[in-house]
Design a protein that fits this description.
Length: 104
């Protein structure tokens, strides 16, 4: 799961670099920070094994999805690229869902 989250960051890197300057700091940095926060939350949840931390990963995934949708709607990131990233995040979400069920 961690490797998949890091791959999303690597795959979105070129798209983030192409965000227009007037939105790079308002949107681009926020999306990149959110992606790195996802990595941090996964590491934290794996280390602690606490159910609440796994739920935080799930909540943060939803936030990242929202940021991606916003980028596509504003045409800051190509819709095709957003679709690919959303698919990768969906896979991570499925893993988190399985993880949550195991903790019950």
């Amino acid at each position: 799961m961690l490797a998949k989250a890091e791959k999303v960051i690597a795959d979105l890197g070129p798209a983030l670099d192409k965000i227009p300057k007037h939105q790079r700091y308002r949107y681009g940095i926020r999306l990149e920070d959110a992606l790195w926060e996802l990595v941090r939350l996964i590491i934290e949840a794996a280390a602690s094994g606490q159910k609440s931390k796994v739920y935080r990963v799930d909540e943060h995934l939803r936030f990242v999805h929202a940021l991606l949708r916003h980028g596509a709607e504003r045409k800051l990131i190509r819709p095709g690229r957003v679709g690919e990233a959303a698919q990768q995040l969906k896979e991570i979400g499925a893993m988190v869902g399985t993880w949550r069920q195991r903790l019950k």
